[in-house]
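Quarterly update from the structural biology core.
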Amino acid sequence: MKKLTLSFILICVCIIVDAQLHRSDNWYFGALAGLRFSSGVPVALSNGVLSTNEGCATISDTTGSLLFYTDGVTVWNKNHQVMTNGTNLNGDPSSTQSAIIVTKPGSNTQHYVFTMDETGGSDGLQYSIVDMTLAGGAGDVDSTNKNIPVEPFMTEKLIAVQKLGTQDFWIAAHKWGTDEFFVYSLTLTGFQSTPIISHTGMVHNTSVIQNTYGQMKFNVCGNRLALAGGYMDTVEIFDFDNATGIVSNPVTLPLGAHVYGVEFSKNSHYLYVSTYDPSATLVQFDLTSGNAASILASKTTLSTTPDIYALQLANDGKIYVTRSWSSYLGVINFPEIAGVGCNYVDNGVNLDPNFTGITSSLGLPALTASYLRGEAYCTITNISESPDNSPIAEIYPNPSEGNFTLQFSKENAPVGIIVYDQSGRVVERLNSSIASRHLTFGESYIPGVYIMSISGNTNTIYKRLIKF
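Predicted structure, tokenized:
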């Protein structure tokens, strides 16, 4: 029989070491606020010394131990002491995303601290390097690599994500007064200062400085990007080519109110936005249609609580929400569920259980998006569906309105079976039984397209499943 192939994109078929999740275990932010996520449940911390209006960043090692944190101006080590040379960085605590920390590819001891000036200021994007081999392992800022200018006059947007299938990273920012994204590469040899510039989306005009405000985010797989256009009252969503660094295909969502926070659900099906609209301060959009009109029509109001600002996905898969100068963070408990079923809770995490005056402010720690992937997130790979008469297994009925059955012979019993949804999220891991030689599954799957990888002793095949 002639081989039939079907080319499709499968997101997230490689294994990303779960240890990367631990780089985001510790958060320091707001007015002396902190959280630790290593137990799987956020636990309030009261040992931090950072007090910032907005932007900040924290990084831990691959075991979840705190390394250091910053507000973009001062760097504190794991002992909550100011590092040598760790003052007067040229970020600003009133910048939406004043800093982000990215570990140098191929190193566990050098970390780049990228900083962003406020309101389109002349310092713009710069970087400094923290060397963890100094100060007895507590780290210092390298005096020869401090406040290295990259690009002046930027908006307050600064994000990073790993290049899929490599150790390298992309660092992205947006130019003030233009439609330009500046995307830089951080590689094994260091920071590459020549940007990839994409002209796309709206001009971040200079009519008011507040148009520099608002978060920008990559999704965890680094193939989408969203931003909040401050007082332009608009959110935009883009495709991001993770191989080339090019930003394209804007989807524009005019909201009629100032916007500040944005965050993707981990599976990228939903976007969450904080606004100044008193009737809808936190909203959800369903992105699956890819069409601006349909996305706008999917808008679901989750809260009318005033003064909601930054949003940040955590390594527990939940999205945390700042309520300015509150002792609580809001929490979106199930970000991958449509509508109010995502279960937003205003008083989701108590930051100050001992009543010491700890509060949030407007910001939450900026995290490199790829540090939030975990197992099976994410690489983009072209896969060919295996022929229907594969010697390992066959699946029937397919399409199905109910169960699927995986049939295999004794000599070809699979040793590993994983089902992914279209975003690459692992839906289910199945255990085969040689005794029964078939496996029934999938009754609870929602309608859609799924990919099954079936690994034998010597090779792996891929099957597309359609659930009606």
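Confidence is low (pLDDT under 50) at residues 1-17, 379-384.
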